[in-house]
Specification:
Layout lengths: L8 H8 L13 H22 L23 E9 L22 H17 L1 E9 H14 L6 E5 L3 H5 L22 H7 L15 H4 L2 E6 H6 L5 H6 L5 H11 L15 E5 L2 H9 L5 E3 L5 E3 L4 H14 L4 E3 L8 H9 L3 E7 L1 H5 L7 E4 L13 E2 L6 E4 L6 H20 L1 H12 L5 H12 L1 E2 L2 H5 L4 H10 L5 H23 L4
Parallel strand pairs: 1-2, 1-3, 5-8, 5-9, 11-13
Antiparallel strand pairs: 3-12, 4-9, 4-10, 6-7
Amino acid sequence: MAKLKRITAVLIALLMLVPTLASCSDNTPAETKETTAQQETAQTAESTDASADESETEDERIKPNIPESADFGGDDITFLHWYNPAWTETVRQSRDIYAEGITGEAINDAVYNRNVKIEDAYKVKIALQLEQSTDIASMVGQQVTAGDSTYDVVYQLLSAAPALIQKSYFHNLFNVPNIDLEKPWWDQNSISSLSTMGILSLVSTSINVNDKDATAALAFNKTIAENNQLEDLYTLVREGKWTYDKLTEMAEATYNDSNGDGTMTPDDVYGFLGGRDVIDSLYHGSGSQFITKNADDEFVFTFGTERDVDVISKGIDIVNSVWYFNHHAWKDQSDILYRQIFETGHGLFFWMRLDDVTNMRAGDADFGIIPIPKYEEAQDKYYSLVSQHTTGLMSIPITCAGDDLSMVGMVLEALAAESHYTLIPEYIETSLKTKNSRDAESADMLDIILNNRVFDPMNVYSFANFGDAIMDAADANNKDMASLIKSKEKLVNKSIEKVLKAVSAVE
C-alpha cells in the first residue's frame, strides 16, 4: 500500500464522531457471546432472505457505521489471494474481489460495479495479487519480518491459514477500527465457531462468493428419481423428513448393475456418488461438530457422545454400501470424471460443493439441488459444511497498522455492506437460482443450504489430524470410535492447547 496520505481536517472531525465498534472484547462473558452468536445467526438468515428481495430499496438497507465517503488520496488496498493452477479455468478461484470491466457475466459485473462505487466514495484503488496457495505463507512471513505493508488483506486456503494464525501474523478482527462484526455482512456462523477467547483472525464475509461455492450440498438426477417413483425430495426437505434413512432407502432402490457384469463400475447406475469428504459432510450435517467451546470461550474436543458415534456409524454404513461410488478410491480420481458420471445419468445422488452447480450448467442432466440430509427427523435443521480445501477466509496482516488499518477497516466495511445488497443477491438469484439451477424449487433449497453453514475449528486447525482419521476409518469400514478416540484424544487436546496459547498472543 502507498503510505496513507494526510486525511483532511474535515474528515478527521467526521471520523471522531463515528464510534469504532467491536462485536465483543476479550473479557466478554462466554455466555453473552454465545447468546449473541445465536441471535445474530438468526438475524443473518433473515437478512440473507431480505437481501434477495429485489424490491428492497436503498432506504431499507442497514447502513454501516462509517462515513459514506472519505478521501484517502487514491491509495491502493491490495488483496493477496491464493490460487491453484489446476483450477484456473473453473469458478474455484477468486472471482469476487476484482474485475477489470463489464463483461455481461453476472458475478463479474456485480464485483466491478461494487468496486467502482466504493473506490469513488473513498478515493482508493482495489488491487488483487494472486499467488499459489503454497507460496502465501512465506510471502506473509516475509512481509511481517520486514515490517512491510504491501498486502493489506490476505486470503490463504482455509486448511493452510492456521500456520499463519499461530505465528500471530493477523489482527484480531474484533479490534480492527471501523469493522462492525455484528452487522449481517459478516457471517455470524464463522464468527461464533472460529473465534476463541475473544479473538478472531479470519472471517467469512459478503465480499466473497468463493466460500459460498465451497459449501456442501447434494444434487439428484430428476429422471432417475421419476423413473423409480421416489418420494418428492423437495417435500421431504421442507417437512424436515430428509434424513440418512431416506437417502439410504432411495439409493438402494435405484442402483443397478446396468451392464450385467456382476461388478459395479462407472458404467452402472449408483445410488450415491461421493468421495472421502462425504463422511465429514454427513457428520456435520447432523448438527454436530468435533470442536465446540467451553465457558471460557476456548476450543474443546467434544466428539464421542453416544449420538456422535451413532452418526458416524451410520455414515460409515452409507459410504461402504454397494450402491456408493467413492471416486477417491477409483483408479481415476479426476473431479471432472466424477462429475461426468453424474451428468451422464449414472447416479441418483451426487455429493458436491456449490461451485459444481455452475460447473454443470452447460450439461444436459436434469438435476435438482437439496441439502445434506439430517441424521434424524428430530434434528432442528439442515447443516452444510464449508470445505477447508477449496476456499479461504479474510484476514488482515499485523503490518497494516495505525491510519492504514483504520482506512482498510473502513473500506472493508463499506465493501462488505455493499456486497451484501448487490453481489450476494446476484450470486444467489442469478448465478445459482436462475441461470444455473434447473427449477425454482432448487432455489428454495439453496436458501436452506446457505443460511445454515458450518465452520468447524477441527476442519480449519486439523487438531492431530483427527478429521483425516475419521475419513480413514470410513475408508476401512471401521466403526470402532472408542478405540480411535482413545488413541487420539491426548494428541488432539495437546494440539488444541498449543493453538490456544498461540492465538492468545494475537493483538
